[in-house]
Amino acid sequence: MVERLFAKVAGNGLLNIVLCGGKFGRDVVTTVGRVHYGGIRIIGTVGSDPAESMEIIPETDEIRPGDKINVVGAGGPMGMMHVIRNICQGIEGVSVFGSDVDDGRLATLTRIAAPLAARNGVAYKAYNPTKETTTETFGYTALMAPVPALVAASVHGAAERGLINIFAGIPATVTGEIDLDAYIEKRLYFIGTSGSTLDDMKRMLEKVESGRLDTNVSVAAISGLEGATDGIRAVENRTIAGKIIVYPACRDLGLIRLEELEAKMPQVAACLNEGLWTKQAEEKLLENYSD
After folding, report:
1. Which end of the chain is more exposed for a tag (fewer CB within 10 A), N or C?
2. pTM (2 decimals)?
3. Which domains occur in the chain, in start order?
4. Residue 60, CB half-sphere, CA atoms under 13 Å: how many?
């Protein structure tokens, strides 16, 4: 029955599951893909009053003071941005965990994130879940891989009233088995959105301009249009952990990782900040290609 109800929820709809003291007693096939692309939301109560479920809906989908945050797939470009953003948010008492199955990506992430965490007074830990288990429960989980099994695992790893951000869009047609008993008992809340609003962009710009957030730290490589295709392939094959900036003005510039700049473009490399991209490095790069 509940599986059929999920299929009938309209876009941007709300499904309120009232258990009336009962339980499913099994995992339920859930249209997890529609949380991100369809904007549906799922709430529930173990009691018999539907209004109790409404209290679960958070005022905001942002991280909250004291949250333990788990970024799953933290070593990729999106995951790195989530880790950096959460560290630099200025939210009191948060701790940030970065999870990835690639040790090389974790090392790159930690090289960037650890100094930021120390500077901002935020506890930070990177871990490989295939090698290290954690007993932590998380108030906020951000999923960077479109894998329904990760959503299911996040339900079991969530703290009471936890938010689970299905950030990496699982296709709307894809379902996954979820322990809805645990989801409802813990009063959890799935969120996810496709695209940013203009207000989102304005807030991010304000943080960059105020110095609270430096998006340069996520840059891993640069290229001109000549190297753009190689950059796309690097993203597809997960060979570069970070963002790639394409400079159309830099004719015939292939894909260059920042660690290769010293050998290929030493004048630009001299403008890096401990290996990280800077405005000065960008200006030197463009100066080299100016007419």
Report:
1. C
2. 0.88
3. 1-213 (3.40.50.720), 216-288 (no CATH)
4. 5
